[in-house]
From TrEMBL:
Entry keywords, A to Z: Membrane, Transmembrane, Transmembrane helix
Source species taxonomy: Bacteria, Pseudomonadati, Planctomycetota, Planctomycetia, Pirellulales
Name of this protein: FecR protein
Organism superkingdom: Bacteria
InterPro entries: FecR, Ferrdict_sens_TM
Transmembrane segments: 92-112
Presence of keyword Iron: no
Amino acid sequence: MIQQEARVQELLDTVLGGAPTDAECDELRRLLDQQPELRPSVISQLRTHSLLMWMLSPSAGAEGDAGPHLVGYQAVQAVPSLRSVVAGQRRYWYWFTASILVALLSAGALWGRLGGASHEALGKVLDSSGVAFGEATTALLAEAGDRFAAGVIEIDSGRLALEFASGVSVELIGPARCSVVDGMLVRLEEGQATADVPRWARGFTIATPAIDVVDLGTRFGVATRVSGKTDVVVFEGEVDLKAPAASEERFERRLTQGEAARVDPRGKIERIFQVHGESLGGHWSTLDRPEGGAIAAVWDHFEARESVGFYQVIASGLLEDAPAYVDHPHQWNGVDADGLPSELRGADYVRTANDYRYLPRLSLNVEFAENATLYLFFDQRTAPPEWLAAGFEKTAMVVGLDEDAWQGNPSYVLERGAGRSVDNRFDVWRRRCAAGETVVLGSMGDGDEARAMYGLAVVAE
């Protein structure tokens, strides 16, 4: 504990000195996450440092003002060694405060700690078209038009998109009710929200009655349920799930890209198998499938203790550059300038989990809501397993996979358009399926050759 206190002080001195590295800022965030009891002293030092920097600035005291600001400034000017330090640091006056705020963002709702709720604008409203606001709404600043402050936001219907000054964006889907506490904390009491958080604003939190969802630089969705549970879906990056501060329970669980969980107030995790929505995670739902679409359900045999990966069902979404997997940024493309085969364009499709490609056992179930043709994209580098050859017909069609950079191939990049940057080719297999039928798919088979997980597309008859 003493060593950690000393290290926090050393890192804080570096930040206040004006030249911290990204690694040092990350280490400071991590230490303050691990030792929350150190936060009050750090915040106190921030207050003191900020006050001194203001007092010791020449602009802090007006001409003829012999108050403490000017006296402090004159005292420093009389000591050359101090004068050189203050002169150097004064250039970073605003930068100091910004740096330490960024370093502490993951440690909690700092804005509230430093001054409590305020009616100063915290950000702007990006889109409120089609929104019906509830009577409880207090966060919108009438005099500012498109600005919002700390307070309640209640919408009966529609979508409301907010952007915080930090660059965090939050989209609410009505009916929803939340309290904007400060620039780093939103309490979602009812409804669904999606947050897109830049790296420098990590620590942004959406709290529900069941859990706190703490961002680690990511895009994630949160939805409250009438059961008292909370659904969390991670589209990019990572989040930490924690018990609310006021709760007697204590738990913590990290979710990464491609994972989704339903969590109760005791921290019990249930797996969410499928998420319906748009290919880029804009509109999404963990509830029943939307009207239309041939895919009724997708699930596998793994329990929550083994995996909390999800499958995303995208209606009419198979177009050029369609995201292929929930856990990797690779994309489906046509193998040449002609693009995807016409038979597949605009099909419903399933974003599977690429990390499942080497699983020795897998039982993936697809249930159909209506008569349809199921298409399966299988990596040409891997021999087709018995269940595929026996249950599907191989077609002459081929689709391509454009891979983004990953640990094995850091030089890979995504490019837009058909036939561009196609790194691997997949044969297309098909099978006719009846309404109400459930088709069971297996693993990709044994082997350690380079491979990518198969993809699924469905075209209703």
